[in-house]
Amino acid sequence: MLKKLIATVLISSTLAVVGCTSMPSTIQQEQNLALLQNKIWVMTHIGAIEYKMDPHAPNAPSIQFNSNEMRVNGTDGCNRLMGTYVVKGNQINFSPMAGTKMMCMETMELSSKYNEALSQVAGYQVYGQTLKLLDRHGNVVLKYRSTVQPR
Question: Signal peptide location in the record (predicted)?
């Protein structure tokens, strides 16, 4: 009888602890997703290299995540980009991006580096006004700052 009581208490305690620890994780993921979506994110870094850009400039590399349609759009510094995205926890996957094909002599190198980094994205971290897009190893490939809300 005592063994059954102890086993019941242990199982109940384990289930309570597991249930309580998984709840904050789900809540945190929902909060992160809410911080990610429906903002304009202006790029500040590709890898460890900082790019100082006017966030209001029309050619500043940027990205926006639309929560209603699960679509992503932005610019690579020259061309407009668009596609879809799927978020699962802190992982993010983009569909192949479609884009315009303009020639911008002064920003072609930046555009190329940005698109290469974007193709490596597998995860994200968001903290208030900062977004980090990560590769599959957790390395930061792109970093953004949110300064302008969607129009």
Answer: 1-19
pLDDT digits (tens, 9 = 90+) for 102-147: 888 778 889 999 999 999 999 999 988 999 999 999 999 999 999 7
Q: What is the DSSP string of 97-140?
A: PEE-----TTTHHHHHHHHHHHHT--EEEEETTEEEEE-TTS-E
Nearest 5°: phi and psi at 37? Answer: -85, 155
Would you state the structure tokens that stand for residue 117, as one six-digit string? 């980094």
Q: Which residue, among 72, 41, 37, has the nearest Cα to 146 in the 3D structure?
A: 41
Q: Whose CA is closest to 77, among 118, 123, 37? A: 118
**Bridge partner residues of 100 (DSSP):** none
Tokens of 74: 């932005």
CA distance 102 to 105: 10
Give the CATH architecture of domain 37-148. Answer: Beta Barrel (2.40)
Cβ 104 vs Cβ 114: under 8 Å? no
- Single pTM value for the model: 0.76
What radius of gyration, in Å, describes the C-alpha atoms of the chain? Answer: 20
Place of tokens 């490939």: 141
